[in-house]
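tokens incoming
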């Protein structure tokens, strides 16, 4: 009998990796290709979870939009056909407009300020608000500060933006920013290399890492270091699925995602100087000191526009602006 009990315990360990924890595979969706910012966070999360669970939990990463664009991945997370995702903040505003406050233009002056706000009470409130849409908000990794590229002309100030057909995310906030600056914003899912190459659109706006990973110098000529939006990823899980997990598993996953996010943020920031050098070396004409004050003046009225008319969104934006001014 004793021998049978020992064999049973050994079998359980083989099957689950940790006594008492059922084996589990987590599907995690990202829209970008390996080596990209989202994928770096996803790969680190996978490494930490599988290590800390001693193999009981496996993470399967679905990258390169293999299961859909970011909006479609979020819909699958809502339905629990995909359990987790590392998603750019912009597409969330289709599900809850509260997220628009994060993407307010020229909001954060630097990375430290963005971290202080998003890792603080306001950032946590926004994550909690996503539960009403079926998401468990865990933490923020990052895309980084977004910059403008185009194939038509140098952009030194807001007057140069006029008429440019710019690809934007499926986000009312981002569309409104570029409309206000005078461009013709065109929502499209990523990637848009072919559309840029065929001149269906004139340009796009994204962090430097993306321009390097997708070799945008092949289809774009001008880069403006506009830093117009700090773009986080919101790292989420299916709320319906999350609630089926025991507290210990929730803690393991939440801590692993937080550690992965911190790792990825630092990795992203450490590489920007080298990325800018590569972009110049490969032919980008870079405007390093555009008229940001002029751009800020053009978008200053956004806080009073209809996209912020919902009382709770307007109240959150007011708190966020006050918090930023106080730092």
């Amino acid at each position: 009998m004793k021998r049978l009990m020992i064999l049973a315990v050994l079998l359980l360990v083989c099957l689950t990796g940790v006594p008492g924890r059922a084996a589990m595979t987590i599907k995690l969706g990202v829209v970008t290709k390996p080596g990209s910012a989202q994928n770096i966070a996803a790969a680190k999360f996978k490494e930490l979870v599988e290590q800390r669970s001693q193999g009981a939990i496996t993470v399967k990463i679905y990258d390169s939009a293999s299961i859909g664009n970011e909006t479609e991945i979020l819909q699958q997370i809502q339905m629990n056909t995909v359990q987790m995702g590392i998603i750019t903040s912009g597409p969330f505003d289709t599900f809850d407009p509260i997220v628009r406050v994060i993407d307010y233009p020229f909001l954060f002056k630097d990375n430290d300020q963005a971290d202080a706000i998003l890792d603080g009470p306001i950032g946590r409130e926004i994550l909690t608000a996503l539960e009403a849409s079926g998401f468990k908000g865990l933490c923020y990794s990052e895309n980084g500060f977004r910059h403008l590229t185009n194939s038509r002309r140098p952009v030194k100030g807001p007057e140069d933006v006029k008429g440019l057909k710019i690809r934007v995310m499926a986000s009312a906030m981002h569309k409104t920013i570029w409309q206000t600056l005078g461009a013709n914003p065109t929502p499209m899912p990523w990637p848009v290399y072919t559309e840029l190459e065929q001149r269906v659109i004139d340009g796009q706006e994204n962090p430097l890492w993306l321009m390097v990973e997708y070799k945008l110098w092949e289809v774009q000529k001008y880069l403006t270091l506009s830093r117009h939006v700090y773009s986080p990823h919101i790292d989420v899980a299916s709320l319906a699925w999350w609630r089926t997990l025991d507290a210990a598993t929730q803690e393991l996953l939440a801590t692993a995602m937080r550690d992965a996010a911190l790792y990825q943020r630092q990795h992203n920031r450490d590489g920007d100087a080298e990325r800018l050098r590569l972009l110049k070396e490969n032919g980008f004409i870079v405007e390093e000191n555009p008229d940001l004050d002029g751009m800020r003046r053009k978008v200053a009225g956004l806080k009073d526009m209809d996209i912020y008319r919902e009382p709770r969104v307007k109240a959150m934006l007011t708190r966020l602006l006050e918090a930023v001014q106080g730092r």
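note: The first helix runs from residue 2 to 16.
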